Structure formats: structure tokens, C-alpha cells
Amino acid sequence: MAEPYSLTGKHVLITGAGSGIGRLMALGAARRGATQLVLWDLNLPAAKAVAKEVEALGASALAMSVDVSKKAPVTTAAAKVFDKVGHLDVLINNAGVVTGKHFLDLDEKDVSLTYAVNTFALYWTIQAFLPSMLARDSGRLVTIASAAGLAGSSRLTDYSGSKHAAVGFMESLRAELRDAGSGVSALTVNPFYINTGMFDGVKSGSPLLPIQDQDDATAKILDAVESTKRELLLPGMVYSVRVFRLLPTALFDWIADAFGINKAMKTFRGRRT
Ligand SMILES: NC(=O)c1ccc[n+]([C@@H]2O[C@H](COP(=O)([O-])OP(=O)(O)OC[C@H]3O[C@@H](n4cnc5c(N)ncnc54)[C@H](O)[C@@H]3O)[C@@H](O)[C@H]2O)c1
Predict the structure, then answer these.
(1) Which of 14, 15, 19, 234, when mutated, tests ligand 1's pocket best, judged by the most ligand atoms within 8 Å of its CB?
(2) CATH 3.40.50.720 applies to domain 11-267
(3) pTM for the complete prediction?
């Protein structure tokens, strides 16, 4: 994509739009001129409440109850989206879950759900919307992965594994789109902890890696959506992971410990709803 992307006049679908940065991205996209927001969430009342906020900003909103972890409901819901709003310009895969459990405490349901929402959902949503984007030779595919998709951490074996998979998935998809000479572009976002409540209780182990404010993080993500960027790491310090990876693994592990990466999850409570 040679030109920066503008959200003005665009149709934008966000998964997990009922809460956290999903909700904030919906409101931000409406403020930046998107004309149609499609808000998918398991929690329909929450998505409907966000739809009202979006409409108050002058954009149209369609709230839908969709479980993105399964292919069939995603395919059915996508057909309704085409029926009601015509086409989609931007797909933001944002829905995510975390258990925060130690490895030996994870049961089969925990691991399956984490991968189904954080990884497999990307296959189902993008398979549903990419063909129409390819036909128009235009569109932006955005995945909110995680800094845990670049570096592992204690109590995140399921989450970090699923986010590493999401990062690899997006890199491969980007390669396929490039190979096909497509005008559809892809952006992977890898944020460190954000104060949405999803990781409630987590404490930063270093002033160099502060817990991010959800409004600031959302503004930076939307700036990246409206750019030619292929990846966004938040905050900037996360880019150093790539440099530290060049070091011997024992040294990389020592640096991660020095940054308090493993201590951060010790106080994790998660979202209590
Ligand atoms: N908060 C952080 O510290 C942080 C850091 C890095 C990455 N992320 C990622 O950012 C994304 C958004 O996180 P958040 O902090 O806003 O979380 P959040 O918990 O506030 O929002 C997640 C939303 O996803 C929805 N959801 C969960 N399972 C779903 C399913 N099967 N189908 C449809 N919707 C579903 C939830 O109902 C919720 O509204 C997630 O992918 C998360 O992994 C968050």
C-alpha cells in the first residue's frame, strides 16, 4: 500500500468491540470519519451500548452477538454484514481472552478457548471478509496480537503461545497478499500491558515498560491503521526485543527478568465481571 490509509468514509468491523480498546477503537474510528461501524462481541448488551455511543458521534453502528471462536457463527454473521452494510473496508481482529494460569493449572478447556479466540478466530473472520476485499483490491486487515506474541512470560504459556501464532499467521498472510500483488494490506499490533481491566492487577517491573493508558494506546493504534505501517509495537521499548533476540538465549532471559517481565503477572487478577 503506497498511500496512507484514511478512515474517512470507511466501513469498519471490530471484534470484541463491547469493551476495552475494542470500544475505544470504535469511538475513535467514528471520530476520524468512519461512516459505518460493525461491532461484534459475545456480550450483545455491551456492543449495543457502544453502538449508541458511536451513533452519538454521527456514524452508523450495527451491534451483533458473534462468537468469533467458531467458524459457523462467523460465516453466518458475515453474510448479515454484507446484507446490511454492503461492504467492509477495515477488519480489526481485537477479541481476546487470557487465563493468567500457571502451566500445570491449565485444563483442556482453557487452552482450547485461548487458541480459539486469540488465534483460530483470525482464520474465520479473514476467510469471511478477504474475498470481497480482494475483489475490490482494497482493504485493511488489522490484528491486535500482543507483546506476549514476541516474548514469552510466566503464567502466559497459553496466551503467549496463541499470540505468537497470531503474529506468525499475520506475517504469512502479509506474504501471501504481497505475492498476489494485492491492494489489501495487513497490520499487526503488539502492545505491552494496557489498563483496560483485561490484565487487572498486573504491575510493571520497569519504568522503561510502563502499563499503557488505554486512550493513548488506542490513538496510536488508529494512527497506525491510518498509515502504511505493517506492524506496530507499543510502547517503542518493545522494539528492543528484536535486538535482544540477537543475544545468546541465556542473556535474553536475563534481560527479560531484569525488566521484571515474569514478575508482572504475579499480581494478576484479570477482569472480574
Ligand atoms: N489489555 C492489555 O493489557 C492487552 C495487551 C496486549 C494485547 N491485548 C489484546 O488486545 C485485545 C483487546 O484487549 P482488551 O484489553 O480491550 O480486552 P477486554 O477484555 O476489555 O475486551 C475483549 C473483548 O473481547 C470479547 N470477546 C471475548 N471472547 C470473544 C468471542 N469468543 N467472540 C467475540 N468476542 C469475544 C469480550 O466480550 C470483550 O468485550 C485482545 O486481543 C488482547 O489480547 C491486550
Answers:
(1) 19
(2) yes
(3) 0.98
